[in-house]
Amino acid sequence: MNTINTHSVLNKLITLTNERDVLALEQSLAEALFELVGASDDDNVKSVVIYHPDDTRKQLLPAIVVGKSPEQDNSSLSFKQLLIDCFKSGEYCIYEQECASPIRLYPVKNAKDHTVAIIAIEAMVCGSHLHEVINLLLKIYQNFTGLINDNERDTLTGLLNRKTFDFRINKILVQMQEAAKLQSDKADQVYFLAIFDIDHFKRVNDEFGHLIGDEVLLLFSQLMTQTFRSNDPIFRFGGEEFVGVFECSSHDDIPNILNRFREKVGQFNFPQVGKVTVSAGYTEIFTYGLPSQLIDHADLALYFAKNNGRNRICFYEQLIADGDLQENKKEGDIELF
Predict the structure, then answer these.
(1) What is the pLDDT of residues 222-266, one digit of tens each?
(2) Which residues form the GGDEF domain (predicted)?
């Protein structure tokens, strides 16, 4: 398209590289692509959708939508299959629709060349020049997200690191506060913070060595990413301690989510080590809570779980209500290993 000029593309790059949060960066990317494709004709582009894999449901789900909702039927088996094929192959694909604009599927890859998302652009026209610009923009995006991930991720497990936690939890609290003020649908969602600790992990290191211990941590983290949703951030806090933040539709969801993971860990056969269990403590995230207070509350619930049999999940607010814990007081000397 002749209307695509250097100034326009550079402005898109400035917008993208101004972000430091991957989720916000994805939103900026979708908006930039929408503007770019519609530069010559606003009616040309219908939508830009970023699809993420949902490991728990073995399918690709729309995470970000810019523009009109996609005109194609979301239940279309042929479109779903093409999404899966594109994700597996990592190759550009086109989905032709009757009486509607074609949908072009662009795979987004990480530093290891693994496809991590699919960008679907529904537009009537996409010339070779525009196609080339989109590909170049995606390569720059992939390089930039690689730099962010290197800074945000734990080296061993690939999970978010402790340094990233404060930024993420504060962002969630701000979103909750804004939703409460606007009385939006998001205000009906409930959030929880959980701390996970591998039971008797010190014994693993003592009996099998730190190399095997690291393998247990890596496999444990992989079980977490397989079990939990991609939009529920998981952090490694150090050693065998992990933190997760979960958005739920009701209070009944969270114990099921956490216990499903606990059972999955208990059933997994760790090489050389065998069976391993996990304990967790969790607390509800209230709109005007403090990150340090949330960690303290979840930690108290974890201490209680460790001191009362291990391989269990404990809810801080329920422990307080039942009189099993007192506010701001830990229950005696507790072995964490």
Answers:
(1) 999 999 987 899 999 988 999 999 999 999 999 999 999 999 999
(2) 189-318
Least Cα distance to 275 among 216, 323, 318 occurs for 216
Its pTM stands at 0.70
CATH architecture type of domain 160-322: 2-Layer Sandwich (3.30)
Task: Indicate the CATH number for domain 6-152.
Answer: 3.30.450.40
pLDDT at residue 97 tops 50: yes
What's 208-233 look like in SS3? HCHHHHHHHHHHHHHHHHHHCCCCCC
Summarize pLDDT for 57-79 with one digit per residue, the tens.
556 677 788 877 655 445 588 88
Q: Which regions of the chain carry the CATH code 3.30.450.40?
A: 6-152
Close Cβ partners of 187 (under 8 Å, ≥ 6 residues apart): 176, 179, 180
Structure-block tokens of residue 151: 């800074």
Structure tokens at 279: 């304990």
Cite the residue boundaries of each domain of the chain with CATH code 3.30.70.270.
160-322
Q: Would you mind telling me the total number of residues written for the chain in this entry?
A: 337
Q: Give the helix/strand (H/E) hosting 190.
A: strand 190-198
Task: Supply the DSSP string of 225-293, one letter for each residue.
Answer: HHHS-TTS-EEEEETTEEEEEEEESSTTHHHHHHHHHHHHHHH--BTTTB---EEEEEEEE-TT--HHH
Picking from 312, 8, 24, the residue whose alpha carbon sits closest to that of residue 167 is 24
